[in-house]
Structure formats: structure tokens, C-alpha cells
Amino acid sequence: MSISSRSNRRRANQRPGSVRRPPARTIEPPDYSREYADVRQDLVWIAIWGGLLTIGMIAASFVL
């Protein structure tokens, strides 16, 4: 069996004129920004308090 006959058989198995159609509907990723707004606010407060306490410890190390 030659290579050309193999390639001809493969081509014969393909559907003629096959065109890819777009999907029926597009799936959008979910938007969690409203659900995690409280979590984000808590993380902001943790960052603020952590920064203030770090600055306080540095200031206390110079004073004490």
C-alpha cells in the first residue's frame, strides 16, 4: 500500500464542505464581584490594621 493511497482514503472519509459552525450559545464566566464585596472590604481593613500595627511596632522600637 503506497502513501498516496492512504492519504486518498483519509480524504475520502472526510465530509465534503464541512464548515465549523459557532456554538449555539456562548458561556460567560460568572461575576463574583458583588458576592465577594464584603470579603474584599474585610481584607482592606486587615491590611490597614496590619500596616498601623507594624508602624506602631517600629515606632515603639525607637522609643523603648
Kindly state the mean pLDDT as a whole number? 83
N-to-C order of helices and strands: HH
| Radius of gyration (Å) | 32 Å
Category by helix and strand content: mainly alpha
Beta content: under 5%
Distance between the termini: 91 Å
Note the overall shape: elongated
Describe the fold and architecture.
With 64 residues, the protein is mainly α. Helix content is 59%, strand content 0%. The protein contains 2 helices and no strands. It has helices at 3-13, 37-63.
Q: Which structural traits does this protein have?
A:
64 residues; 59% helix
Could you write a compact summary of the structure shown?
With 64 residues, this protein is mainly α. It is built from two helices and no strands.
Blueprint of the fold:
Layout: H1 3-13, H2 37-63
